[in-house]
Design brief:
The protein has about 150 residues and is mainly alpha-helical. It is about 80% helix and about 0% strand. It starts with 19 loop residues before the first helix and ends with a helix.
Length: about 150
């Protein structure tokens, strides 16, 4: 229930660390509470009211300790993140629409290929009948020529 006072310094490159503890601390104490909560959920931490309140308190306290310039920068960064996330949702929506259209086009293409195959088969049958008719006509003309002699 008690936590000893310990200080951990994480360098800028903590993302590249192979140490799981450093990775977890980096994710938990990063400057974005949403990322921290997402990380905890991915790691299987049950998000109880106590954990959510502690997370909110940490980030609220951390934010209040920033000087005015850093606080303004943090607010601006959070605003940009929200804008990027909104833009990303728009792109994902467009992507889903494009995928839906692509499936429809693929289905239409398949239907057109089937129609084309049917027409090619009909054309082949018509050519074969025409060839047989030409042969029969040639034979009839030959008999007619013989008949006239």
């Amino acid at each position: 229930m008690m936590i000893d006072s310990r200080i951990v310094f994480l360098n800028e490159g903590w993302h590249n660390s192979g140490d799981g503890t450093i990775q977890a601390l980096g994710h938990l104490f990063d400057s974005d509470r949403k990322k921290a909560i997402d990380f905890m959920e991915r790691e299987g931490v049950k998000m109880t009211r106590t954990i959510e309140a502690a997370t909110e308190n940490y980030y609220d306290h951390h934010f209040r300790t920033l000087n005015r310039r850093d606080r303004k920068a943090a607010l601006e960064a959070q605003k940009q993140i929200r804008e990027y996330e909104k833009q990303n949702r728009e792109y994902e929506k467009q992507n889903r629409e494009y995928e839906k259209q692509n499936k429809e086009y693929a289905q239409q293409n398949k239907e057109y290929q089937q129609i084309l195959a049917g027409k090619e088969s009909e054309l082949t049958d018509t050519r074969n009948r025409l060839s047989e008719t030409e042969k029969a006509l040639a034979a009839a003309l030959a008999r007619l020529a013989e008949y006239e002699k």
